[in-house]
């Protein structure tokens, strides 16, 4: 019993923090393609924040996401663009954004390939301030890459009598996480949780077996004592 208590305490200490609000999208990575260096809508000419599954410390981004109240021209608020880079073709991924409940916001996430991005009218004016004269040094234009553009739409979802906040809602502090699926079935971030559950199940099975064995022994001992008492009464 003491060992079981220690195990549960250890698992509780290893458990991670859960964010208050989460919005996500799940997708399959596209085939790897060569990056056209003369196309302004590709990463060779853009300076976008990138998320990549490996190394793991670059699979999440802690950032400020600009927001605005919905309007007729922007019914889902302000848009921000990111790059999902160095994906494994045909692998399932999940992108989620986590933010505190103290900043009520409505998020909408979508992913686009290079061929699909040309059909997004808002993308062209957005990239004007992100164009750079030369490709990033860490981008190999000779090697095909699997990548996607991530669009996050953020709309403020609150009401206040403060006219300043209603006119200029503050950006939302958020974590954007790229999470690959293991065997296309389980998000990588859930693997430790699955391990904890399996460990607890195994420990519970052994504990239940030990309790059952002890209880069975006590019943057998009591039954044996009762039989002895019955025999004594018969011989008297």
TrEMBL record:
What GO annotations for molecular function exist for this entry? mannosyltransferase activity
Give the signal peptide range. 1-20
Gene Ontology biological process: GPI anchor biosynthetic process
InterPro entries linked: GPI_ManTrfase_II_coact_Pga1
Tell whether Protein biosynthesis is among the UniProt keywords: no
Please verify whether the record's keywords include Protease: no
Q: Which PANTHER family match?
A: GPI MANNOSYLTRANSFERASE 2 SUBUNIT PGA1
Task: Write the protein's name.
Answer: Uncharacterized protein
Organism for this UniProt entry: Triangularia setosa
């Amino acid at each position: 019993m003491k060992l079981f208590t220690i195990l549960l305490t250890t698992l509780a200490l290893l458990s991670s923090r859960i964010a208050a609000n989460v919005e996500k999208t799940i997708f399959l990575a596209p085939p790897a393609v060569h990056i056209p260096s003369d196309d302004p809508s590709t990463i060779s000419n853009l300076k976008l924040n990138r998320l990549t599954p490996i190394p793991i410390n670059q699979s999440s981004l802690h950032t400020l996401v600009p927001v605005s109240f919905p309007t007729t021209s922007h019914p889902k608020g302000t848009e921000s663009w990111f790059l999902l880079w160095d994906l494994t073709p045909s692998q399932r991924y999940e992108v989620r954004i986590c933010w505190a409940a103290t900043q009520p916001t409505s998020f909408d996430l979508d992913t686009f390939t290079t061929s699909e991005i040309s059909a997004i009218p808002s993308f062209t004016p957005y990239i004007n301030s992100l164009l750079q004269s030369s490709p990033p040094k860490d981008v190999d234009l000779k090697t095909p890459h699997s990548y996607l553009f991530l669009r996050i739409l953020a709309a403020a979802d609150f009401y206040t009598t403060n006219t300043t906040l209603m006119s200029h809602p503050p950006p939302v502090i958020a974590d954007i996480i790229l999470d690959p699926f293991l065997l296309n079935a389980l998000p990588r971030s859930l693997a430790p949780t699955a391990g904890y559950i399996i460990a607890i199940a195994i420990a519970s099975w052994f504990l239940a077996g030990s309790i059952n064995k002890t209880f069975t022994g006590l019943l057998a001992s009591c039954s044996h004592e009762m039989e002895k008492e019955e025999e004594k009464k018969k011989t008297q």
